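Quick one - inputs below.
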Amino acid sequence: MQSAVTNKITKELMTGLYGECRKAISVNDYPALTALRDEAIRRFEETGFPTTKLEAWKNTDLKESFSKEYKVVVKPEPVVDVQKVFLCNIPHLDTAIMGQLNGWYVSKDVPLMKLGNGIIMGSLAEALKQYPELVEAHLGKYAGVNGDAFTSLNTAFIQDGVFIYVPDNVKSPKPVQIINVIHSNESLFLQSRNLIVLGKNSRLSLVHCDDSYNQQASFSNVVTEIRMGEAAFMDHYKLQNLNNSSSLVSSSYFELDKAAKLESHYISLNGSLLRNNIRLRFNGPHGIANIYGIYLMDRKQHIDNQVFIDHASPDCTSSELFKGILDEHSSGVFNGHVLVRRDAQRTNAYQSNRNILLTETAKVNSKPFLEIYNDDVKCSHGSTTGQLDHDAMYYLRQRGIGEDSARMLLMYAYADEVVSKIAIDPLRYRIEDMIKKRLQGELQICEACVLHCNTPEHPMEFVIDMTKI
Amino acid sequence: MLLSIKNLHASINGKEILKGIDLDVDHGEVHAIMGPNGTGKSTLASVIAGREVFDVTAGEIMYKDKNLLKLAVEERAREGIFLGFQYPVEIPGVSITNFMRTAVNEVRKYKGLDPLSGGAFLKLMEEKKKLVELTSNLANRSVNEGFSGGEKKKNEIFQMAMLEPELAILDETDSGLDIDALRVVANGVNKLRTKENAFMVITHYQRLLDYIVPDFVHVLFEGRIVKSGTKELALELEEKGYDWIRKEQEG
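Output:
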């Protein structure tokens, strides 16, 4: 088997590669998984990569991302200096760190750990070997292969990623942080697959970061399936900070059992093209999902958030708040779709997308959409796009605050509505700090980056003191 | 002379609002600007503050012997000009504390002073809050967000107390206030009055002038000051109404 190929990414390349590698990548499969792969690649072959002719991709064009050549790796390459790559320096943030390098799970010691409280965490590839029944009960069950082409492709090539299992009634004592770093001297096309299973009445805080280590281009197709058992609680953070030539299609599939509660935060700070597919299904009554998003784009960057909430059960509440600031020639898309099924009585569903365009060349397409088949519901949706409030600018300046500071203050306050929802204090402070730097154009990949930075943090002077005194 | 306005003409979207204003304001003085709606009172305040939507087409404004029209909004503010807004702007996400700390320190920086430390700033805030009878819970809320009309106006006076301007322009600060709020606002102004500062109080009604006693009263009508006098002029206006002015002008 060829372990890598460098080429332009096409349907033919990927299906051909699957044919060549099928045996090697399915070596640890339970029988149904190989069948799932075959079905997935067949579906992918039917659809191919999405184009702007598809409604769901109308405003996100992959042409430029796919005009480059990428190296597709189907076997992990040797890791150099794991320690150096994963040094995390968020002060006072005490997390259990799980590292991924170019999509492959990396560890200093054992690839899969079972902790005293029964939590299993580590490499999905290793979980396939050690806990095949546990994996089989969930893998591919929420993502399916009938929808998105990227998910089908990812499913066909499932090899490694992060696996977390929290047993019934166990509360993870500290946040778990997944750091996926792309670090290569070549442009990589990578696919990783994560599976997170929360038992009944369990609890997990999960910080999931995607980062670039250098300026090399990359294309990531990441799929994460998250199953939350009855009354489970998860506090979930996706932090995206890639370089200006990298693209990321990140698909998250959430399945919430009865009375499960999810707080999810999508924080998109940098990247050439970022697409978040967020799909959530209420599998039982009384579930709650709050999904927040903040994105700060400039240059020719593009952000696309697609949120689909399936109210398949009664008495559930979902709320979405996505806010963006788009500068220069950047562009954004928000598609929110809430489906309230016939039997989902007493549903509460709220959707809101707000955008600030700082220039005339920045643009956004926002489409909140409610599809309701029940009349006992409370739903609302809204979308606004505008400039910074001129009256507020004038008011601040009339008190002696300079134009730049006033603009910063307003942008920061605008973002803060979302950022203030971050429940882990050290993480929130750090993200507030990153947003300040990002807004001032000072956030440099690898230099002041939140995750793998190994230079001592140099204190920065801010004109505006945001500390709440 | 603190402020000297000569033959000021200003327009918005090509429509002339101010048609030749002459006005001198000196330290230690309180000037009331009165007049019917739509005659340019708020425009005059905005032009002095430096709002960019207005075009000054003729005339000059000298402030502390500087050409005020050459300064940006924030520079005028740092030079000591304060505008109490008729409609204070709501700014979600910016706390009053943070807003005022930024403003006070930017003004201090302009004057070559070190920024106030957190402790010193808090102390100053407590002192000024007391002065203007501002309840403590307002300070931690977002600027003007969800405030009642009275709270917004009290907040303007609080900001004025924090920034200690040399020239404070209060644009219809009395509008929409009940009598208690009006008294609080007026008390704040009276406590801040010194020989070193000056006030321009824009008002539609004489009522406010029972509490803030002006040294001079000017009547603005169709973009010009048509009558100036002492506080007795305000009483006369109250009695005769603005029709008196209109008739005089038209006749």
